[in-house]
Amino acid sequence: MSINELTQLQNIPSWASKKTLSTCVNVIQETHDVKTFQLQAVDRQQFHFKPGQFIGIQVEIDGVRHSRSYTIASTPSRPHILEITIKKEQGGVVSPWLHQNITVGSKLEIRGPAGRFNCFDTASDKVLLISAGSGITPMMSMARFWTDTQPNKDIQFINWVRAVQDIIFRRELALLDHKNENFNLEVVCTQPGLSENWLGRRGRINHTVLDDLVSDLNDRVIFCCGPDGFMQQVKQCLEQLGFNMANYHDETFDPGGKKKAKLAEKPQSTPVDEEQPSVGPYQLTLTKSNKVLTVEADECLLERLEAEGIEMNFGCRAGNCGACQVKKISGKVVIQNAAGLKDDEREQGFILTCTTRLRSDVELAV
């Protein structure tokens, strides 16, 4: 590569938080049911983001558009390629389709980055990364970034998997462990197969194992990602060990929108406005788009806006990331999960469209 070509490469504009058409430039079979898709923007851009964040994708399957969010596994220190690592979910719709249909040369529409879970906004000298299964993806983004940019960073990485065949990034993790003196890796199998000859640690997480693996636990900042049940166990273990939970940060890995389905069944937190009888329909006025819609009381606001062709940011679609927030000018709503809103945002009238239902005529600044 010439100096001129290198200069041109460095002058590629930064990624914007809008829909971006990307091309798949490589597919890596990580495990029997996990693939990594390496993406490059069609209009060349540098993918700048905070390790731990995610992107949203939209795909059309049998004439129906589906939206999903996936954590970025790559690192912003290598900004010309974006990687998402996706497990093929049994009974899923989108992940099996991606595994079958996305190959080198395929186009994929992405939006991002989004999400408040990241390692940039939290000061840390010594860190502990804890993951389970596919929750390893944001941990890998952080580990790659730190080993690229801060080789002296003290990193302890513990990854729980079911069996040896389920270890995602197995070779790369071993290489990071080998090449970086301050990177310490421990993989724990909960159910290794009899034929796998696993010589490492076995068993589920408990406070005794955690205390044994990390002797200086209270000196570290913890980042954790995995299924809900696993993370609840992690938090219980840390509390038993007297860990300062102000130094604990987590992100639930939610393939296939399972958390969203639960939210549709039952409110998960106190609504922004008092709950009103679900009557309707109601009139929804979009002041920026100059549209007036009729919306039923049980309709998800984000899904209705998307169906109307309104460009919307989104991420987790479960009320946790805050990406889909908009300002409510007037009217009453109920929000089934408002965890993604900061206190000042609530006071200013912002709502999360992914978990919001109308309880009167409403005006939005959309």
Short description, anyone?
With 366 residues, this protein is α/β, with parallel strands linked by helices. The chain has helices spanning 3-10, 94-101, 136-149, 170-179, 207-213, 228-240, 258-265, 301-307, 343-347, and strands at 19-31, 34-41, 54-61, 64-71, 82-87, 107-114, 126-132, 154-161, 183-189, 201-202, 221-226, 248-252, 282-286, 291-295, 325-330, 333-335, 350-352, 356-358, 362-364. It folds into three domains: 3-114, Beta Barrel (Elongation Factor Tu (Ef-tu), domain 3), CATH 2.40.30.10; 126-253, Nucleotide-binding domain of ferredoxin-NADP reductase (FNR) module (Rossmann fold, 3-Layer(aba) Sandwich); 261-364, Beta-grasp domain (Ubiquitin-like (UB roll), Roll), CATH 3.10.20.30.
Number of strands: 19
- The strands making up the biggest β-sheet line up spatially as 4-3-6-1-2-5
Measured between the Cα atoms of the first and last residue, the distance is 46 Å
Low-confidence stretches: 260-272
Mean of residue pLDDT?
Answer: 88
What global shape is seen? globular
List SSEs in N-to-C order.
HEEEEEHEEHEHEEHEHEHEEHEEHEEE
Q: What CATH first level of the largest domain would be assigned?
A: Alpha Beta
Q: Helix/strand/pairing class, anyone? A: alpha/beta
Count, helices: 9
CATH homologous superfamily designation of the largest domain: Nucleotide-binding domain of ferredoxin-NADP reductase (FNR) module
Estimate the helix proportion, in percent.
10-25%
Computed CA radius of gyration, to the nearest angstrom: 22 Å
CATH topology of the largest domain: Rossmann fold
Name of the CATH architecture of the largest domain: 3-Layer(aba) Sandwich
Strand content: 25-35%
Tally of domains:
3
Major sheet description: 6 strands, antiparallel
